[in-house]
Known about the structure:
By secondary structure, the chain is of the alpha+beta class. It has helices at residues 5-15, 17-55, 115-123, 201-224, 228-240, 245-273, 275-278, 290-293, 297-316, 320-324, 326-330, 341-356, 364-395, 400-411, 413-434, 456-465, 499-509, 521-524, 526-564, 566-574, 579-615, 624-644, 647-655, 657-661, and strands at residues 68-77, 80-89, 111-113, 140-141, 154-158, 182-186, 448-452, 470-475, 489-494. The strands form two sheets. The protein has a six-stranded mixed sheet with strand order 4-3-5-2-1-6. The chain has a three-stranded antiparallel sheet with strand order 7-9-8, with helices on one face. Helix 2 packs across helix 6, helix 2 (17-55) runs antiparallel to helix 9 (297-316) and helix 12 (341-356) runs antiparallel to helix 13. The relative contact order is 0.12. Residues 322-333 and 658-662 have low confidence and may be disordered.
Amino acid sequence: MRSPVLPLTWHIVRSSGRRGLQSRLLAAGAAAVGTFVLLVMVAAALGSGARADRTAWRTPEPARQATAVQALATTYVRHEPVTVVSLAQLPGRPETPAPPGLASFPEKGEVYVSPALASLLHRLPANQLADRFPKVSSYGTIGAAGLASPDELVAVVGRAPTDPAVSKEAEGSTVSDIDQSARASIAGFSGTRASLFTAYDQQTALVGVALLVMPVVVLAAASGRLGAARREQQLAALRLAGATPRQIIGMTVLETAALGAVGALTGAVVYGVLLPVLAEIPYGVGDWYVSQLWVGLRWLVTVVVAVTGLITVSAVSMLRQVATSPLGVAQQADPRRTRLIRLVLFVAVLFYVWGSTGGGQLSTRQVVGLLLLFYGAFWLFGPWVVDRLGRLVSRFARGPATLLAGRRLSDDPRGAWRTVSGLVLAGFAAGFFAVSMVGMDGSTHRDQVAVAGAHASQVCTLLRDAGVTATVDTVGEDDWDGLLTGTPGVIAHISGGGQARLDTAVTALTAANPARPPVTQDYATAGDRTAIGRFAEVSTATLALSFLVATASAGLTAAAGVLDRRRIYGLLRLAGTPLKVLDRARVCETVIPLVVLAGGTTATGVYASYRLNKAFGASLNVTGALELAACVAVGALAMFAAIGGSRPLLRRVTQDAVRSAD
């Protein structure tokens, strides 16, 4: 016998009318937004790893049967790092393979540059940048295979084996040289150590992903419950008419899976179409190659299936009462209370997180795991708080709007929680990031250029010939506070200031020690600035996406709530309740849990950032309080705007009160 599930499902969809269509379009739209954001998050994490892999060849890997010598050096222009890879073929040895991005191993005197560096060489005067490299009639071009970003500044220089740039002195000896200078005899380019300027990218991106996952899950779960009240009423009627629980579940799975799949595929298509635009968003060393942000078919299918499955599971989870007590659902007799076990689990998780961040270093995996654990616990805890808030508000209400809001909060705490959960969880991200950007005083060595192993007279001559005025000091092995950190050399204090004069001085002093590029403040603070810069960039992107997802979630849930409660709103209008009171009750129903819970999560985020920074030996950024206040204000305004967007819908569903009530 043919199953009636499919024809019944199709009949219900077709007969649901314009309001049912609106709920389904909202659900598909939420699925599209969630899929798009998830794909962007996955692309950022995978793309960061691909970037790091493309820079690993620059750090030389020692080989027993070496065929060439490779040296890595880093210089700075306009505060931007320029990676210089010097290569020299050893005589009498087999030919060395070409480095990534080049067609062949560079000959002595050949210079290959990235497209961004070539453009900069043409824009800047030669005495500020070009004179740091051997003079050539034309530069070769490094292909994309050897670059992490189209904006990266990289040069590959062919040298003689006796050139000072590939001598043992090029290895570097200061603390700042770590990951910026290296030298080894090689047989190929199979290095595994990523560049200093890409090594932090994926780890930092994963922290942002962990903070964004739960708001996206909230949005997807909310989309699965859009139109839940209408669906419950329809399915309860079918259940009373003789439909089995299996048939009820099958109808729900068919409907929500189809909606979720359509929405998820739409989000995937939007992601694919916007890839060139997404590639223009800078991160770390610059823009992206489009191929780096393509997640691949496997990840694309996984995200689409995951979002579709999450929406379906969310919808099916609402059917327990329909299957076991259809009469109660039909009469709307389910109080939807929450249990104390939610509070117990939340407190247990807090103590676990407290103990885990008490001391010692935390790996990226541990940080991500703790964030996800906290988010999951708060997701369980939120409805319990909303339920208790509703009871308190109902008890102490002084007006009809507040009383209605309190009753709605206690009657359906899970639904009220879904409306505000996105912004509540985004508040945690705001509090976490706003005070975690560690400040660093970099003014100690401003307008200074240091050259290891140089002589003061030589430095004075080179600066005078370049037209740069400076005072020169000689430092020794006992000077650990300067740019050379215990390495003998010379420090020039450039007079007049200005980045152009500093770049001119660096270019002029390159000849003072061909084996060791001049050192500036940018070079000495590169490691800390890179880590802090990545964290700041991820924080900005995370906050923007969090509030985007939270606003979308609130707007969709508020609109669906109006559609689901249109019968209740109609009855209240028939009883003489003004439309203004109903709208004010909707706002109170959102504002009350939002103020309590968002304030709590924001404070928790600040504390979590404090514990994390303490574990890493860092300090909080006090000025981030202003940024935090701005984020909370913008998020609250966006939330109210999203809720206000459903006000015309409320007016329409209550215009004909008799028809809405019936």
